[in-house]
Design brief:
Strand content of chain B: over 45%
Radius of gyration of chain B: 14 Å
Strand content of chain A: over 45%
Oligomer: heterodimer
Number of helices of chain B: 0
Shape of chain B: globular
Helix content of chain B: under 10%
Distance between the termini of chain B: 37 Å
Chain lengths: 111, 117
């Protein structure tokens, strides 16, 4: 079992829809959770982080965390074709310098 | 935000030669940096963890004599691919750990595309 699991996709949504990306993790000591976006041919870019249970909103993005279920998700509202990318989930133990990454979910937003 | 640079962005070299890639944290000090490799349409693969002033920790299966890592300062880590071969052609990405208010956060450089002919 991988430490961080994501559906590889591809996930396809129409423009304007809500895209829901999911991630589960196995280390119950994980305390910090991150979402990265990686466009094809580019390096990952940090777009969201969340530390506490519940929701955290930033513009069209909402990160949701449920530590009891060891589950973190990213919702993208009003999806745009420019959101088409691979989204990586990462977790760490907060004061551990290294995050563990999932393999990513590829999202395609169709015009 | 935290900025990490890499140089060069793209390099083509001949088989048997060595290539050095630099990774710099521009606006913060990073005691820990990481080197990843990514083949087309595949996931990130962590190669090694680089700590300032000490030897790098390599992931299983990564040849330490082939991929030399030096982290001489809090803002600079280098990866040298020695005696490169065509199978070393890949996208190499570094990242640096920023000690933020509530956690360490990893920020990535733009990557270096290596082609070995």
């Amino acid at each position: 079992q991988k430490e961080v699991e994501q559906n590889s996709g591809p996930l396809s949504v129409p423009e304007g829809a809500i895209a829901s990306l999911n991630c589960t993790y196995s280390d119950r000591g994980s305390q910090s959770f991150f979402w990265y976006r990686q466009y094809s041919g580019k390096s990952p870019e940090l777009i969201m982080f969340i530390y506490s249970n519940g929701d955290k909103e930033d513009g069209r993005f909402t990160a949701q965390l449920n530590k009891a279920s060891q589950y973190v998700s990213l919702l993208i509202r009003d999806s745009q074709p420019s959101d088409s990318a691979t989204y990586l989930c990462a977790v760490n133990r907060r004061w551990a310098g290294k995050s563990t990454f999932g393999d990513g979910t590829t999202l395609t937003v169709k015009p | 935000g935290a900025v990490v640079s890499q140089h060069p962005s793209r390099v083509i070299c001949k088989s048997g030669t060595s290539v050095k890639i630099e990774c710099r944290s521009l606006d913060f000090q990073a005691t820990t940096m990481f080197w990843y490799r990514q083949f087309p349409k595949q996931s990130l693969m962590l190669m090694a963890t680089s700590n300032e002033g000490s030897k790098a920790t390599y992931e299983q299966g990564v040849e330490k004599d082939k991929f030399l890592i030096n982290h001489a300062s809090l803002t600079l880590s280098t990866l040298t691919v020695t005696s490169a071969h065509p199978e070393d052609s890949s996208f190499y990405i570094c990242s640096a750990s920023l000690l933020a208010e509530r956690s360490y956060e990893q920020y990535f450089g733009p990557g270096t595309r290596l082609t070995v002919t």
